[in-house]
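Appendix B. One record, verbatim.
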Amino acid sequence: VQDIALMYITNVGLIVSIAALIFTCVIILIVPSLQNLSGKLTFGLSLSLSVAQLVSILSGAFAESYIVCKVVAALQHFSWLSAFTWMNSYAVSMTRMFMHVSYFIQSVTPKFSPYVIWCITLPVSIMICTVSLDVVGTFVIYGDTADGVCWIPRSDILLVSFMCPLAALLL
């Protein structure tokens, strides 16, 4: 009974969060004054979080199919890593703003493209490495249809492919 209640509470919370994240994206797109670097970084973070949460909700529905479960797990892996790189980019942007006040006084607009490249390249690189190991058969990394989980079931692989990159981002 507690597992079912927890599942419903989790799904309701995820749905409310996704709605708020999409609302944030729409507001940023509508209001021109929010389309600065901080607004764009917030948009990227909101978008990646909404995709990660949506895939989390839907992942149980794909646990029956071996291949689809692996694809869903890889997409979820990419989305969560992307969300953390967007947070990292936001932190770098804020650090640059506070450390180089003269940079902003000179009216030089900070560029968004390096942040986009970083926020896509790092998660894709990590995901390609883990997908390659999974396809080659060295390790079963994504999905475990026996347990009905479309994620990374092994804790050692989770540590290397998810927690280590997150720890590196915190440094």
